[in-house]
Batch of 2 targets.
Target 1
Amino acid sequence: MTPFKIATMTALVLLCAAPANARDSRMAGNVTECSRYSNGCYTAPVRQGRFGPQMRLKGGTWIDCKGSCKDTLREETVDFWETQRERGSDRR
């Protein structure tokens, strides 16, 4: 490969990566939500994912926000079992 081709490919990679980095920095932040059942509060980092905002759960897994990141955070962390019980009673 010629130095020109290497430089061109490097420039293209950097140009393609720049918008993604800018988008991530705009969406970066945290969301905090407290339990409706006195189970405490939890704060999670938020980033822009491929299809919308995502947040990181306690174990390190990134999940998509379903509508509101605050509601998703509460349902998937501090009120997880209560949410499962509520959804289970809706199926009967």
Target 2
Amino acid sequence: MDPAALAAERARVDDRIASLHHELASLAEEQALTSHDDEHDPEGVTIAVQRAQLQGLLAAAERDRAELAGAARRFADGSYGVCTGCGGPIAPERLEALPAARTCISCATRRGTRR
């Protein structure tokens, strides 16, 4: 993975974040046009569930963006691709699948983490 690929991944995540913000704003607008009587509004729960799902997706995308920013910093300081657990190399295939990976497969498996 090179800086250009990290930047492309970051742009993809930024687009996803913008789209989720737009969906949340649209949902809020839609909710403003509906009744606030939750007891008799069959759409009330659906809108609340949609909002919670979108907020969860947005939080995950923002975590991804932060992880990619960390990967860019590691690339700049020369530590990208070096496992923070054992100091060994992170397999290129792992970095291709998870560009922000901080650990090798062995350390991630031991710690039960994805990154």
